[in-house]
Amino acid sequence: EVLALLVLMYPLLSGLALQLHSAVTGSYVPGTHSIAFVNCLNEQIARDIARAIMDKKLAAYVNILPKSSALYFWKGELEESTEILLLVKTRTSKIGELSNYVRSIHPFEIPEIISLPIDQGNPLYLKWIEENVPRD
């Protein structure tokens, strides 16, 4: 029973230990923040989704990158289109909520919502992300 409880509590306890270490040492814990990529059909949809993400405080910063060409398989066929890409800077702990929310408002049947952890960066910028995205 105790072992099962410890196994279930491990993610929470390790997260708290990392936060404590970061607070005490002032150092950044790799992976605390992430960049999510979200593809959009056009600039208006991209702006609407970016604004919705910011209004929900699910990110500190969203870049809207200009139109790019895309090649992909859809329903067995090779497709070619243009799209706008969002780069969403947020806490890693918010990625699940961000993904669920974007899927609920995105017009695509299967929108691209993928993320990569931020390994290192400008400590002041990373702290700024933290200050602008509320904790869970």
UniProtKB/TrEMBL annotation:
Gene3D superfamilies associated with the record: 3.30.70.120
Top-level taxon: Eukaryota
Pfam families according to UniProt: CutA1
Assigned protein family: Belongs to the CutA family.
Cross-referenced PANTHER family: CUTA DIVALENT CATION TOLERANCE HOMOLOG-LIKE (PTHR23419:SF2), DIVALENT CATION TOLERANCE CUTA-RELATED (PTHR23419)
Protein name as it appears in the record: CUTA protein
Signal peptide: 1-17
Self-association state and partner proteins as the record states: Homotrimer.
UniProt keywords, alphabetically: Signal
An example molecular function term from Gene Ontology annotations: copper ion binding
SUPFAM superfamilies documented for this protein: GlnB-like (SSF54913)
Source species of the chain: Pomatostomus ruficeps
Any GO BP: response to metal ion
Keyword Signal belongs to the record: yes
